[in-house]
Amino acid sequence: MPLQLISYSPEALLEAFKSAVKPLYYPSETDAPIEVLQVPVEEIGEAISTQDIDRLFYDTEGDFSAASIEWAEANRLESNGTQRFFRSFTDVITTFKNNEYYVQESGYRELVPHWRNLRNLIFDNLVQQRWFRVDLAEPDGARADIYLVGRHLQIEEDPDTNETRFTPRDWVLLKTHVIET
User: Fold this and answer.
1) pLDDT at position 175 over 70
2) Crossing angle for the helix pair 10-21 and 106-125, to the nearest 10 degrees
3) CA 125 to CA 106: how far, in whole Å?
4) Please, what sign has the CA dihedral across residues 125, 83, 19, 30?
5) Does a cis peptide bond (omega within 30 degrees of 0) precede residue 139?
6) What number of CA atoms fall less than 13 Å from residue 62's CA on the CB side?
7) Which residue would you say has higher pLDDT here, 178 or 3?
8) In the prediction, which pLDDT does 53 show?
9) For 131, which of 8, 15, 74, 102 could close a Cys bridge (C-beta 3.0–4.6 Å)?
10) Domain limits of the chain?
11) Is the pLDDT of residue 1 over 80?
12) CA nearest neighbour of 122 among 164, 150, 96
């Protein structure tokens, strides 16, 4: 029997991400929308780096130029990149190391399921996840662009034999920005 697709197709995954980010705005001094991009593996290669982000988005005569780019792994819930991207967006109650806690205001609480859905899409469909922060050069120094990036892993299975095939596909990027004055 032929292998059956048990993960999202590339097109369906992009639509799922677009639907997931639709109600969300990335909070900072200005709430920014989250853009979903797909970049072919041929443009990036097998791993993504700060040089790739710079080349893809800032190495041309565009509106913004990068002053610095930092990155962190985002392949687990507790990894630095995941923590830096999602902050407390997926929490109804945020508990701190000293056992103090904060209950999110109603507007944020209502968005928690949407942030959790986005997080689950990332961890259930992408591999090689990384978080990038690009601090922009003056005169745009108050702005930082934020990226959460991963490679789509297509999963196929033969239901008769349980043979499973994993195929890395294109890169999916979530792009937003923050304003910090």
Assistant:
1) yes
2) 170
3) 30
4) negative
5) yes
6) 13
7) 178
8) 95
9) 74
10) 4-82+113-179
11) no
12) 150
Q: Which residues does 1 contact at the CB level (< 8 Å), separation at least 6?
A: 158, 159, 160
Evaluate if residue 166 carries a pLDDT over 90.
yes
Count how many Cα atoms sit within 13 Å of the Cα of residue 158 in the half-sphere of its side chain: 8
pLDDT in tens, 84-135: 999 889 989 988 889 999 998 888 899 999 999 999 999 999 999 999 999 9
DSSP class of 3: -
Residues in the chain: 181
CB contact set of 42 (below 8 Å; sequence gap of 6+)? none
**Architecture, CATH, for domain 4-82+113-179:** 3-Layer(aba) Sandwich (3.40)
42-66: pLDDT as tens digits = 999 999 999 999 999 997 766 788 9
